[in-house]
Amino acid sequence: MATETTEAPFTPAPELTETDMDPQLAQFLRHAFYWLNRFMILMWRLGLGIWLNDARTSGQIMVITHIGRKSGLRRQTPVNYALVDGELYCTAGFGRLSDWYRNIRAQPKVEVWLPHGRWMGEVDDITDSPDYLYLLRQVLIGSGFAALLAGINPRTMSDEDLIAVSRGYRLLHIRRTSAATGPGGPGDLAWVWPIATSILLFMLWRPFRRLRDRSDRPRRFGRRGGCCKQSDKEN
């Protein structure tokens, strides 16, 4: 007689705390991502976000606009993501220590910038989902060099190793509710390009014009002294 077995639900590893991560590594990563995030946001605002997205190198990158839990101001954070069956997922690598994660837990309504669209949505923490490991692996595969920088190779790691190295990660599901419109979206600084192009062309034209003027001088005035000799003969 066959007996029915019930698979135990997946339980993520214990929550990461500040003492669980090497302090020097944590400081290096925070400093590196601080400046990298600023650069990424600038590129998105200049309308270049689509060019930054490549799963094997820079990673699949989106920008989350969230509200500061203390200031009430709009904050923006670029994060890696994965689309699985049309649903949007991302992870907070520093877990509950991340400021942006704490912001969206306080106010889960966000705006997301994707390479081909801008959406309003709501964020759910699904770290306790039975699909946690599979979905987390997809997000890490889509993170490009960022996962490798943290010492994670999601394409080759076993489930056990991935659970161990991702201890404390939070898996987030962003449910897109409607298309976002209005000012303040990706490409809001694209007006810079015509001005920058005009300035660049002017700077390139100036030395070219000086070079042209110098080459024209012998034809205008002849050889040195030629103008004076000609006036002597006329007198």
Explain the overall architecture.
This protein has helices at 23-45, 99-106, 132-141, 145-149, 159-165, 192-221, 226-234; strands at residues 61-67, 74-84, 87-92, 109-114, 117-125, 170-179. It has 235 residues and is an alpha+beta fold. Strands 1-2-3-6-5-4 form a six-stranded antiparallel β-barrel. The protein is elongated, with a radius of gyration of 29 Å. Mean pLDDT is 80; it is low at 1-19.
Which SSEs are present, and which pair or pack?
Layout: H1 23-45, E1 61-67, E2 74-84, E3 87-92, H2 99-106, E4 109-114, E5 117-125, H3 132-141, H4 145-149, H5 159-165, E6 170-179, H6 192-221, H7 226-234
Antiparallel strand pairs: 1-2, 1-4, 2-3, 3-6, 4-5, 5-6
Count of all domains: 2
CATH architecture of the largest domain: Roll
CATH class of the largest domain: Mainly Beta
Structural class: alpha+beta
Distance between the termini: 131 Å
Tally of DSSP β-strands: 6
CATH superfamily grouping of the largest domain: Electron Transport, Fmn-binding Protein, Chain A
Q: How big is the Rg?
A: 29 Å
Question: Mind summarizing the main beta sheet?
Answer: 6 strands, antiparallel, barrel
Give the mean pLDDT: 80
Strand content: 15-25%
CATH fold-level name of the largest domain: Pnp Oxidase, Chain A
Query: What is the strand arrangement across the widest sheet?
Result: 1-2-3-6-5-4
Order of secondary-structure elements: HEEEHEEHHHEHH
Shape: elongated
Regions with little confidence, pLDDT below 50 for 5+ residues: 1-19
Number of helices: 7
Residues in helices, as a percent range: 25-40%
